[in-house]
Amino acid sequence: MAYVAVKGGEAAIDNAHAWLAEERRGDPSVAEIEVAQIETQLGRAIDRAMGEGSLYDRKLAALAIKQAQGDGIEAAFLLRAYRTTLPRFNHALPIDTETMAARRRVSAVFKDLPGGQLLGPTYDYTHRLLDFSLATTGADSREVASETVAASQKMPRVHDILGHEGLIEPDHRTGAEPGDLTREPLSFPAGRDIRLQALARGDEGFLLAMGYSTQRGYGGTHPFAGEIRQGTVAVEIVPEELGFALDIGDIEITECQMVNQFAGSKTTPPQFTRGYGLVFGTSDRRAMSMALVDRAMRAAELGEDTNAPAQDIEFVLYHSDNIEATGFVEHLKLPHYVDFQSELESIRRIREASATTE
Questions:
Q1: Cis-peptide into 189, omega within 30 deg
Q2: Rounded Cα gap, residues 111 and 125, in angstroms
């Protein structure tokens, strides 16, 4: 059955698109923002769009942000839609973050780390005061000091240090082929491979709220930031016709290993357990939130009580995807004339029946 009231609306839609393009351009007397400017100067917005869009491409992310007028969710939506048009010709090997060319590497549990600590480019120690010099083009000419640990120089992980004494759970690598959330719909029970994929592209605000809830007692596990490292890692593939690995480029990532207390169980002695986060680009907040929620969702497998929202795997995974959430929320503004008329008539009948019985 067609919605008669919206027939002939194509012209209105075309006009809406034209008006949107005019709004996107803004004041013609002001120079149009270029994609290259967005790519090089709005790095955090780029990183978030790539993460939630499940596509690592800084130029395309910059274009999506421009097209979406800075709307991060819309930009991520554009990237996901574009991603579905791309052929898949190979799978990358697991990246080795131990050989990361790190710009930032900090630990909240050990002061003196093998390889040292690097503050890197961070807002952690800024005063959060508006810098009005940035309002003047070209005024920000301060010298920048950079320090990077070469990719060939391995940095031992904090959990390896604890692992030497058997104080932290070991890696649980099965060697099995991980699932692919971008090609198969989410289903339950969801293994940790799928859970981590969902968290990696989940809405940052939602992940932050869930992570914060665990610290406020809703599934709290007394976390410590074992290690956070940010930098570039090589991506390698093994072409079938060659049979050996080829380095196809580098990507920027942030990795977080969260260390959590565990009282032990009948089969496992008291030890530290881990939550893990790995995200595109530079984002301590996103990687830490992911690690907190990952650990919270492991409660059942560790024999802990599961009575908090962050520990409810189905709740977290179904509601962390802002693209899917946007679709369900925004569909409410589409025409529902027939449905509403039906409910309106139902309410009228109920009221009439109620008045008659009185």
A1: yes
A2: 18
Tokens 């690690």 belong to which residue?
291
Which whole-number Å values give the CA distances from 184 to 151, 265, 353, in the listed order? 34, 35, 49
Give the burial class of 17: count Cβ atoms within 10 A of its Cβ; 0-12 exposed, 13-18 middle, 19 or more buried: exposed
> Per-domain residue ranges for the chain?
7-83, 97-320, 327-357
pLDDT tens sequence across 71-122: 999 999 999 999 999 998 888 999 989 889 999 999 998 888 887 889 998 9
The tokens for 7 are: 């027939």
Q: Are 147 and 105 in contact (CB under 8 A)?
A: no
Token digits for 19? 């008006």
Beta strand pairing call for 246-262 and 271-280: antiparallel
Q: What is the pTM of this model?
A: 0.87
Q: Side chain identity at 156, as an amino acid letter?
A: P
